[in-house]
Amino acid sequence: MAQVTPATEKDAEEISRLIGEIEVYYGGDYAPGNVDQIRAALFGAHPAATVLLARDGEDVLGMASFSLLWPAAGADTSAWMKELYVRDQARGRGVGRALLDAVRTAAQELGCTRLEWTADTDNPTALGFYEALGVPVNGGKVVYRLPF
Description:
Elements: E1 3-6, H1 12-25, H2 35-43, E2 50-56, E3 59-69, E4 78-86, H3 95-109, E5 114-117, H4 124-132
Parallel strand pairs: 4-5
Antiparallel strand pairs: 1-2, 2-3, 3-4
Helix pairs in contact: 1-2
């Protein structure tokens, strides 16, 4: 069973490699993340997100990242899971569920009242995973993206 723990600054290079793999998963070229940007974003004075890593001993099997959003409902805080990724060789072994459970637990411990995320409509693997867990689709939102 995978052990899920918060990433530390020493994990920045591994997170960079995972980001490159995520790019490939979504059809792009392998493009690892800039390690200095990762360190600044995750371990600087104002962390933008929390990353959890699933490990089997020294092997990193996957990651999840989340940020806090406010306000959620009323003055509540919610957690937004931006990424849930499991390496090919670890899929089907409960790693994704362990990561999702760890994000949920962390969010609850931080006082969040809900956890939200999106999944691409052309990603049947992810959609099937969430459906199998019984997570309902929230059709009440439209996602906008303003690039700059």
